[in-house]
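FW: tagging you since you asked about this chain on Friday. Here's the raw sequence from the shared folder, copied in full. Didn't touch anything.
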Amino acid sequence: MATELDDSIRDRVKQLLHRELKINPGLVKDDSSLAADLGIDSADMVELAFAIEEEFDIEVPDEELVEYTDVRKIVEGIKSKIAEPSPEVQPA
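HL: got it, structure written out here
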Protein backbone atom coordinates (compact mmCIF):
# COMPACT_ATOMS: atom_id res chain seq x y z
CA MET A 1 0.00 0.00 0.00
CA ALA A 2 1.47 3.32 -1.09
CA THR A 3 1.96 6.08 1.42
CA GLU A 4 2.37 9.83 1.01
CA LEU A 5 6.11 9.31 1.36
CA ASP A 6 6.05 6.69 -1.42
CA ASP A 7 4.10 9.07 -3.65
CA SER A 8 6.50 11.92 -2.94
CA ILE A 9 9.57 9.77 -3.65
CA ARG A 10 7.97 8.32 -6.80
CA ASP A 11 7.17 11.81 -8.12
CA ARG A 12 10.71 12.99 -7.46
CA VAL A 13 12.16 9.88 -9.15
CA LYS A 14 9.98 10.55 -12.21
CA GLN A 15 11.25 14.14 -12.26
CA LEU A 16 14.85 12.89 -12.05
CA LEU A 17 14.27 10.43 -14.90
CA HIS A 18 12.89 13.26 -17.00
CA ARG A 19 15.52 15.84 -16.07
CA GLU A 20 18.57 13.58 -16.21
CA LEU A 21 17.64 11.03 -18.88
CA LYS A 22 14.86 12.81 -20.84
CA ILE A 23 12.31 10.06 -20.11
CA ASN A 24 8.68 11.12 -20.41
CA PRO A 25 7.19 10.93 -16.88
CA GLY A 26 3.90 9.72 -18.37
CA LEU A 27 5.63 6.53 -19.49
CA VAL A 28 7.01 5.72 -16.04
CA LYS A 29 5.00 3.20 -14.00
CA ASP A 30 5.91 1.47 -10.72
CA ASP A 31 6.65 -1.78 -12.51
CA SER A 32 8.47 -0.16 -15.44
CA SER A 33 11.67 -2.10 -16.05
CA LEU A 34 14.50 0.39 -16.23
CA ALA A 35 16.25 -1.51 -19.02
CA ALA A 36 13.44 -3.15 -21.00
CA ASP A 37 10.70 -0.51 -20.70
CA LEU A 38 12.66 2.72 -20.28
CA GLY A 39 15.85 1.88 -22.21
CA ILE A 40 18.19 2.74 -19.35
CA ASP A 41 21.69 1.30 -19.73
CA SER A 42 24.48 0.98 -17.17
CA ALA A 43 25.90 4.45 -17.91
CA ASP A 44 22.42 5.94 -17.44
CA MET A 45 22.10 4.06 -14.13
CA VAL A 46 25.30 5.63 -12.83
CA GLU A 47 24.02 9.07 -13.85
CA LEU A 48 20.67 8.34 -12.20
CA ALA A 49 22.40 7.12 -9.01
CA PHE A 50 24.34 10.38 -8.72
CA ALA A 51 21.12 12.35 -9.21
CA ILE A 52 19.32 10.24 -6.57
CA GLU A 53 22.18 10.73 -4.11
CA GLU A 54 22.09 14.48 -4.63
CA GLU A 55 18.28 14.80 -4.62
CA PHE A 56 17.71 12.71 -1.49
CA ASP A 57 21.05 13.30 0.29
CA ILE A 58 21.74 9.56 0.55
CA GLU A 59 24.43 7.17 -0.66
CA VAL A 60 23.66 4.42 -3.17
CA PRO A 61 26.45 1.81 -3.13
CA ASP A 62 27.15 -0.03 -6.38
CA GLU A 63 25.92 -3.33 -4.94
CA GLU A 64 22.52 -1.72 -4.24
CA LEU A 65 22.38 0.02 -7.59
CA VAL A 66 22.17 -3.30 -9.43
CA GLU A 67 19.06 -4.14 -7.39
CA TYR A 68 17.24 -1.12 -8.83
CA THR A 69 15.61 -2.94 -11.74
CA ASP A 70 12.29 -1.10 -11.73
CA VAL A 71 10.81 2.12 -10.41
CA ARG A 72 9.21 0.43 -7.38
CA LYS A 73 12.59 -0.90 -6.23
CA ILE A 74 14.13 2.55 -6.57
CA VAL A 75 11.35 4.03 -4.42
CA GLU A 76 11.74 1.25 -1.82
CA GLY A 77 15.52 1.67 -1.76
CA ILE A 78 15.30 5.42 -1.27
CA LYS A 79 12.61 5.04 1.38
CA SER A 80 14.75 2.59 3.36
CA LYS A 81 17.73 4.96 3.19
CA ILE A 82 15.67 7.92 4.36
CA ALA A 83 14.28 5.84 7.25
CA GLU A 84 17.75 4.75 8.42
CA PRO A 85 18.93 6.66 11.48
CA SER A 86 22.04 8.72 10.92
CA PRO A 87 25.08 7.40 12.76
CA GLU A 88 25.73 9.46 15.85
CA VAL A 89 29.02 11.28 16.01
CA GLN A 90 30.89 10.35 19.16
CA PRO A 91 32.81 13.13 20.89
CA ALA A 92 36.58 12.75 20.87
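FW: The domain at 4-81 is CATH 1.10.1200.10 (Non-ribosomal Peptide Synthetase Peptidyl Carrier Protein; Chain A).
HL: agreed, and The longest helix spans residues 4-21.
FW: great, closing this out.
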